[in-house]
Amino acid sequence: MRPRETSGGARELRRVTSFDVARAAGVSRAAVSRAFTPDASVSKKTREKVYQAAKELGYRVNYLARSLTNKRSDLVGLVAAGLDNPFRTRQLDHLARALIARNYRPILLPTSKEVDTSTVIGQLLHYAVSGVIVTSDAPPSHICEECAAEGVPIVLVNKGEDFAFVDRVVSDDRMSGYTAAEHLLAAGAKRLGVIAGTAVSYTARRRAEAFRSRCSMLGAETQLIPVALNDYQHGRDVAPQLLDLGIDGVFSVNDYMTCGVLDGLVSAGNGDGSVKVIGHDDIPQASWSAYELTTFLQPADLQAEQVVDLLISRMAEPDAVARVEFTPVTLIKRRSA
Fold first, then answer.
1. What is the pLDDT at residue 33?
2. Which one of 16, 150, 192, 263 has the minimum C-beta count within 10 Å?
3. Do residues 46 and 76 touch, judged by C-beta distance below 8 A?
4. Domain of 30: which CATH number?
5. In a domain, 248, yes or no
């Protein structure tokens, strides 16, 4: 903003425009536009002159106004639920950073089980977003079709639904389920269990199914301990049930819930490590001395790059067949198992 005199002698602020910058830098308005457009053709000398003039005048690019001209903004919607889970906040942090590194600007829309994902995505379409990344419930098919018709790509993260023109990035849950079973048996566990809210989470269901399948292959008895939600409190509440069932080795499908399981075991008087526990995600709390949790690293940084690569590729090839990429996992061994 720059001040200007009014008829009464007062000074008011006027928004600095690209025309002002062009005049001050001695270049065309088109040159100003190119200078602020990543990868646009403009000489280093011209770009420096424009940046210096913009700095002196206090100019900022109006990206929303630019979207009216380009018919598409550089905004990318991030639709997410479960923000109390430390892995989800880490996941969103890496997704946002990956988008910014590609000159896109993330816009977060939190959602929940009570909110229709299609409503949230519909709100994003009003802002001419360049794409949508969904880490909460997968949207219904009609909203995916609407996005495809408007040229707005969607990438789903850790979701199982298949939609035309919608790409997915999925953690290698089969590997984690198999490896968890093998590791618990190798550690001496005899009666195994898996804690999972399979009705509310695709990843929970996949990990539990893989774990039980591998146990069956190895001739090991296993028990599914269902929970309503895969969160800390439900993990803590279900811990005494493990003792009642005589389970001495358990796979809990995310670390957030697993921390609750470990605290619940301590509260039940069984914090001696006789129940071996494995989690998933390697959240920061997993390495705390109170937990020292054996878990699977789900690399959020790598996953974010996979997601953004698919999103940008879909922008360039909107009619390509739907693709699925898997994020590898690594077992991190600590005291709990």
1. 79
2. 150
3. no
4. 1.10.260.40
5. yes
